[in-house]
Specification:
alpha/beta; Rossmann fold; Transcription Regulator spoIIAA; 4 domains; six-stranded parallel beta sheet; five-stranded mixed beta barrel; 15 helices; 38% helix; binds S-adenosyl-L-homocysteine
């Protein structure tokens, strides 16, 4: 019998499936961190799990449907395990849990546990209750106490690899009329500088060379600094840039209203801050921006872009768009297309408007027909794709520093990222993993680049 057979048998299998934004990906990792000391080890397969967590997203309609169909499928695994005399705790977490906790409990009686994004630090207590009364007790936990959560989280498990995410801010006070986030995540909350720096150091010690600071409204960050005063995002970026062995810093997602000059200037002054920014605008029409309660007009957005490009001329811009918001006319949509033509994004995401229960826009009149939404989405995505390819093609012939973050599934290539966040595949020795090397770009596609290591690094390659 192998020496560790006992420990392996003692281990409980934890399966987590994650939908939604990076914040949810981060939360799923932290849930695993919390459960590890209780004997739970993450498994990639749901079969035979002792605990299953579906970490859900509520941002658009289909996401909720997906959760319920996934629950149906997973239920069979639970039934099978129970038929064999086992147990499987089934939990729904994340933003659907927060918004529709009671409804899930009603519609899916086999779900044992529902908890929102701000209560997962209480998982040990919830589990203790459940395991004592499996099949009889059910729990819904959907408080919105962000401070308490960050205060009680255990240390980061440190195995994120070369590119890591670090949550610095949560929640949102902006209340765009289409959006569920202020309701599912609660109000804006920033972690302290000390907490963030400690977590960054732990990530770097375990191999992170790039850290992306996460927040629903990351540039509204106002965490307590070492001096007891409130620090803004550029100040914490400056602080993190001092950490040796950290090569790159990014942040996402930002709101135009919080794009202060000091943050724009950080793109000029801090070398480690990458020339890439995801700055959603949602629409190019002033009328629709007002109906969305975005609290800014298109000209303000153009001014920010202009200032950014002055500070960092090569900055790659990304954005989010919603088409078919109630009342969006052909002219309003044309204004969006015009904004996109002027900004020329390096990449952007676009969605059909989806009414969300409980949000003000869900009660608005003048709905846009589904076929019109489909048409507009196709036109917008066509334009964005053109620009994305053009941005990528413009890189051909340039030499860019690439940070290699993982091996490529196919053959001898490494996967890396350029400063502009483009994915790139390069033939290189595994010794370059976790390092930056200059790459001469020789190919450009819609979603990635190819290139060769510059001569100097080729020596390393053959070593
Ligand atoms: N905090 C970020 C975005 C959060 S949600 C911001 O302020 O921009 C991510 C994206 O989903 C949004 O930018 C928006 O484009 C899209 N989205 C949010 N609610 C939506 C809805 N009801 N219908 C369609 N798309 C939506
Ligand atoms: Fe949602 Fe608007 Fe807040 Fe972004 S800023 S999370 S879109 S309410
Ligand atoms: Fe979705 Fe919640 Fe993120 S609704 S986009 S998982 S904040």
């Amino acid at each position: 019998m192998p020496k560790d057979a006992n420990t392996a048998a003692d281990k409980k299998k934890l399966f987590i499936k994650t939908w939604g934004c990076q914040m949810n990906v981060y939360d799923s990792r932290r849930m695993a961190d919390i459960l590890r000391p209780f004997g739970y080890a993450v498994s990639e397969e749901p079969e035979d799990a002792d605990m299953m967590i579906l970490n859900t997203c509520h941002i658009r309609e289909k996401a909720t449907d997906k959760v319920f169909s996934e629950l149906g499928r997973m239920r069979r695994l639970k039934d099978k395990k129970e038929a064999e005399g086992g147990t499987m705790i089934m939990a729904v977490a994340g933003c659907v849990a927060q918004a529709e906790g009671e409804y899930i409990m009603e519609r899916a009686p086999y779900v044992d546990l529902v908890f929102g994004p701000q209560t997962y630090h209480e998982l040990p207590e919830m589990l203790a209750k459940l395991t004592g009364a499996y099949g009889t007790e059910r729990i819904v936990s959907t408080e919105l106490d962000t401070e308490n959560k960050f205060d009680s989280l255990p240390e980061e498990s440190n195995d994120q690899g070369v590119t890591a995410f670090l949550s610095v801010q949560e929640g949102c006070d902006k209340f765009c009329t289409f959006c569920v986030v202020p309701y599912t995540r609660g109000g804006e909350y920033s972690r302290t500088v000390q907490q963030i720096v400690d977590e960054a150091k732990a990530l770097i010690d375990s191999g992170a060379r790039e850290i992306t600071l996460l927040g629903q409204n990351v540039n509204a960050f106002h965490g307590e600094g070492y001096d007891g005063k409130s620090w803004n995002l550029p100040k914490i970026i400056e602080e993190l840039a001092k950490l040796n062995d950290l090569d790159r810093i990014r942040y996402t997602t930002s709101h135009p209203r919080d794009m202060e000059m000091s943050l724009i200037e950080a793109h000029r002054d801090i070398d480690k801050l990458m020339p890439y920014l995801h700055l959603p605008v949602q629409s190019g029409s002033n009328k629709i921006l007002k109906a969305m309660n975005r609290k800014h007009e298109r000209d303000m957005y153009f001014k920010i872009i202009e200032d950014l490009r002055k500070a960092r001329p090569d900055i790659a811009l990304s954005g989010d768009f919603i088409v078919g918001f109630p009342g969006e006319s052909d002219q309003d949509f044309e204004d969006t297309m015009d904004l996109v033509r002027q900004v020329k994004y390096a990449s952007a995401y676009s969605f059909k408007y989806s009414p969300r229960p409980g949000t003000p826009a869900a009660n608005m009149a003048n709905l846009v027909r589904e076929d019109v939404k489909t048409e507009r989405l196709a036109a917008l995505q066509g334009l964005i794709n053109e620009h994305q390819l053009e941005f990528n093609k413009n890189c051909i012939g340039k030499t860019l520093p690439v940070l290699f973050d993982r091996t490529d599934k196919k053959g001898d290539k490494l996967h890396g990222r350029t400063p502009y966040n483009q994915a790139i595949h390069v033939t290189a020795s595994e010794r370059l993993m976790g390092h930056s090397a200059n790459v001469v770009i020789d190919g450009a596609f819609a979603n990635s680049l190819t290139g060769d290591l510059e001569l100097q690094e080729s020596i390393l390659k053959s070593a």
